[in-house]
Amino acid sequence: MNTHQTHRRNNLRSDVTTLFLIVLLASYLSPSRSSSSFVVTSEEKVKLTLYYEALCPGCADFIVNYLYKIFDNGLISIVDLKLSPYGNAKISSNGTIVCQHGEWECVLNTIEACSIHAWPAVSDHFPFVYCVEKLNDEGKYAQWKTCFETLGLDPKPVIDCYNDGTGHKLELQYADEITALEPPHAYVPWVVVDGKPLYEDYTDFISFICKAYKGSKAPRACLGLSHLITTPMDNVMSKSNLKSLLSKIISSIVASWMNM
To answer: Which domains does the chain have, with CATH numbers?
Structure first.
């Protein structure tokens, strides 16, 4: 084999390898692949914390009419949600807790704290909190026990937590957490995304979550908010431009083969 033939064969191998990588990349960019589910690590999740109190009308409204959406639209997959049911309560000199909206609020704050304690996974305790807050929103807070039956939950761990003093200890922990906030909370609901309070923009929390998310692929719930999203992919060529470039490369390779 002469030098020209060797050079030609090496070029052919290089072109075939390049074409193989192009085909592989094109398959990765295919619609079926891009629409598949993705896994988000705990480090990539956006931390969302809601500081609230049970009988606060604005808090109930936020939970019932806004917060639930992250479960409905799948955004919960990139969110580490924490609920803190204490709000503007105060601790008296004798250690008792005095709540802004009266004794019933202290009861329900503690009940919700106990539900979080009894069912640590947010997917388990949020339905109960939502149910209680929906009753609160409707002025039916005294019927909170019906949420156990409505959701098919065993009331024992929550009731025991409330009666044996565990709930009170949990509320004291929540008190320490909200007291330590920097900047301090000014009102409730107080919504914090990755350590930053949203102040009066809290109802737009989904936009802030999407903006804070640094994962390589934005969830569908963020697609309509793409102008707010900052991800490591921002500086990468768009799919349409990339496909155009791939087409040009393929054409160039084919032309080089024809001229051999």
So the answer is: 46-200 (3.40.30.10)
